[in-house]
Amino acid sequence: MTLSDTVDGKIARWLNQRTEIGPKLDSIADAAMYVCLALSLLFLRADLLADEAIWIAAAIGSFIAAECFALLKFGKLPTYHTRTAKTAWLLVGIAAVNLLIGGPAWPLHIAMTSVIVANLESGLLTYSLKEPISDVTSIFNVREKQDLT
């Protein structure tokens, strides 16, 4: 899943096939993958997920907070696609595979921490930007796309 999510964006940029709706569709697909992954893990490893509920709740809460903040400020959900968020998604994928093969919970802790960090960056971007933009590498290079407030 993570690989296809990475490859499709690179192919679109390589073929110069970027559109305004592309990042929005990518964000919807990301959310759908997270939901499917969570439901699958809940079905297959509910025993372990119950023990790790605080980590998962913190990650989900940070996501909801970042999305709501952007919705309140800009009237729409963010489509930043930062490197931090992509790294978090990769770590979530690794943690999920680890859980499915009966591995320990610590990779999940790292993954959930990375999700929280990615959502904090999203919130900082929303706070800093005057208007919404898509496909930002990180908060550190956002000046190339738009002046910060």
Helix content: over 70%
So how many helices?
5
Biggest beta sheet attributes? none
Distance between the termini: 36 Å
Mean pLDDT comes to 84
Strand content: under 5%
Which residues sit in consecutive blocks of at least 5 with pLDDT less than 50?
none
Question: How many E-type strands?
Answer: 0
Q: How many domains would you count in the coordinates?
A: 1
How would you characterize the overall build of this protein?
With 149 residues, the protein is mainly alpha-helical. The protein has one domain (2-9, 21-144). Helices cover 72% and strands 0% of the residues. It has five helices and no strands. The chain has helices at 2-14, 21-51, 53-74, 83-100, 106-128. Helix 3 (53-74) packs parallel to helix 5 (106-128). The longest helix is centred in the first third of the chain and has 31 residues, at 21-51. It is globular and about 45 Å long. The model has no long low-confidence stretch (mean pLDDT 84). One of its GO terms (biological process) is phospholipid biosynthetic process. The chain crosses the membrane at residues 28-48, 54-75, 87-106. Pfam families: CDP-OH_P_transf (PF01066). Keywords: Membrane, Transferase, Transmembrane, Transmembrane helix. This is Phosphatidylglycerophosphate synthase.
